[in-house]
Specification:
Number of helices: 13
CATH architecture of the largest domain: 3-Layer(aba) Sandwich
Strand order of the largest sheet: 12-11-8-13-16-17-18-19
Structural class: alpha/beta
Largest sheet: 8 strands, mixed
Number of domains: 2
Number of strands: 19
Shape: elongated
CATH topology of the largest domain: Rossmann fold
């Protein structure tokens, strides 16, 4: 491979439900300037047709070891020499076992023996298959031979169970294959807020909202996978924050404001996904308020507008706001976009229990002169789609990386 040239990527696809993610992987690799050729196992063709990968890669898809019409019947040698890097995604437990024992009973395993290119595996299987001693032994054997692995990740699985075994996301695989310079947020510093704020009434009670922080945490993970250096300032969360993300826990709106302002200089992207309480009690009781009186009156005062304060700074990062609405979503979102001078706003309908505190969401995203709608889907997938759109817009407006 010539210096500066993008590597030739040979993508092996084995038979698992995560095959659908391999389609996105092909697209991302081609967007990064790589030529991609696909080899499928027979089991993989039961999940998706070779024609799909042919259309995405622009190259013929190979499935058979002994193909008289392919490279004079020596297709495994030709492909093995062509590839600069080999990645198998998804990699099933069966394929890992065959690779560990050095079998060459199909085209994919044969070319893995015949190539000098580095091999990267993206395992995908049921959590118990991943934890089985045989799979753990095969993993150790492959790693000892210099094979690299990305994932698997933990989460919900197609079988309905939860745990490790999900195939790594395409962005993570591209990052592992091509290095950080390939990621769209490489060299970018990203500051994200997430979760609710709790505004104390007394040492026991608070004013708050139903936000779980799921969307903000998903955005932090998606920005990390896109190569960003991510800091997450969050209120009380209903879930853990994944690794590789700087975490700054806070409780109140004022504490979140101070944490953001202390870190905003030098940031390239600010995503205000937190559901910050709009008001807080004027007075906070030092002791628990007893329920002696039949009525209790609280005087509330406005909390600081963190998003508006960041958007008003000069210079400032690319600023993305969120709007949770119950009526006239488009009208209110566009008004907030203009009023606060944002670069982008993501609005969601939270009427009838939608969105907030739920594992799924839908977004209407607006920016000056454009909009895009994302249908209801798991928040992790929605976050990846939104981060991809944000990086497109940052590139369009020519947002240069900050200098540390």
């Amino acid at each position: 491979m010539e210096s500066g040239a993008r590597p030739n990527i040979l993508l092996g696809v084995s038979g698992g439900i995560a095959v659908y993610k391999a389609c996105e992987l092909v697209r991302r690799l081609r967007d990064a300037g790589c030529e991609v050729r696909v080899v499928m196992t027979r089991a993989a063709t039961a999940f998706i047709t070779p024609l799909t990968f042919q259309a995405l890669s622009g190259q013929p898809v190979r499935t058979d070891l002994l193909d008289a019409e392919a490279e004079s019947g020596m297709d495994h040698i030709a492909l093995a020499r062509w590839a600069d890097r080999v990645v198998i995604a998804p990699t099933t437990a069966d394929l890992m076992a065959r690779l560990a024992t050095g079998m060459a009973d199909d085209l994919l395993t044969t070319l893995c023996l015949a190539t000098e290119a580095p091999l990267l595996l993206a395992p995908a299987m049921n959590r118990l298959m991943w934890a089985h001693p045989a799979t753990r032994t095969n993993t150790d054997i492959l790693l000892a031979r210099g094979v690299r692995m990305v994932g698997p990740e933990s989460g919900s699985q197609a079988c309905g169970e939860q745990g490790p075994g999900r195939m790594a996301e395409p962005a993570s695989i591209v990052h592992a294959l091509l290095g950080p310079e390939s990621a769209p947020l490489s060299g970018r510093r990203v500051l994200i807020t997430a979760g609710p704020t709790h505004e104390p009434i007394d040492p026991v009670r608070f004013v708050g909202n139903r936000s779980s922080g799921r969307m903000g945490v998903a955005l932090a993970a998606a920005a990390r996978d896109a190569g960003g250096e991510v800091c997450l300032v969050h209120g009380p969360l209903a879930l853990p924050v994944p690794g590789g993300i700087e975490v700054v826990p806070v409780e109140t709106a004022e504490a979140m404001r101070m944490a953001v302002l202390q870190r905003i200089d030098g940031q390239d992207l600010f995503i205000a996904a937190a559901a910050v309480a709009d008001y807080r009690p004027r007075e906070v009781a030092s002791h628990k308020v007893k329920k002696d009186a039949p009525m209790l009156t609280l005087e509330l005062i406005r909390n600081p507008d963190i998003l508006a304060e960041v958007a008003a700074r000069r210079p400032r990062p690319f600023v993305v706001g969120f709007a949770a609405e119950t009526t006239d979503l488009r009208t209110h979102a566009l008004a907030k976009l203009a009023r606060k001078d944002l670069d982008m706003i993501a609005a969601n309908d939270v009427s009838a229990g939608r969105g907030i505190g739920q594992p799924v969401n839908a977004l209407s995203v607006f920016w000056p002169g454009g909009e895009r709608l994302f249908p209801e889907q798991p928040k992790a997938e929605l976050a990846r789609a939104l981060v991809h759109l944000i990086t497109e817009r940052m590139e369009h407006v020519g947002a240069e990386p900050s200098t540390p």
